[in-house]
Amino acid sequence: MKQNNKENFKHIHIGKYLQARVEDLQIPQDRIGNFLNATDEEIQSMYRSESIDSYQLLRWSKLLEYDFFRLYSQHLILYSPPTKKDSTASEKNIRNSLPIFRKHIYTKEIIDFILEIIYTGQKTRQQIIAEYRIPKTTLYKWIVKHTNENTGY
Length: 153
What we know:
Protein name: Transposase
CATH topology of the largest domain: 434 Repressor (Amino-terminal Domain)
Mean pLDDT: 82
Order of helices and strands: HHHHHHHHH
Distance between the termini: 25 Å
Structural class: mainly alpha
CATH class of the largest domain: Mainly Alpha
Number of strands: 0
Radius of gyration: 19 Å
């Protein structure tokens, strides 16, 4: 499924993404039904749904060979509230049983989206840094690396 650079990841209607990927791959409805153990009506209902169960989304991701969870990760990168840099001692000692990820994963689509905003003059570099909390050095590396590289700028 080809991602439009103008896609802003703000509103995710997962059913539309699933249906688009199925159409791109031209997967027969009966194969989908067999893999998901779902009726045609249940599949159509998922296409109309803005959200679906995470287990079902994992099954769709495997069937369609596409990481649909990445859409939500990109949303978090762009739209999650900033974290506090100055944690109190008690917050630092909180035991966390979940995995800790050290870096953001910036996909080509996110980088292209951010650079397009800059190149079209919709936002300044400082606005991007402030609004999306992308480190200044990271943004400037993207600009240097991606200028004239498939962007047309």
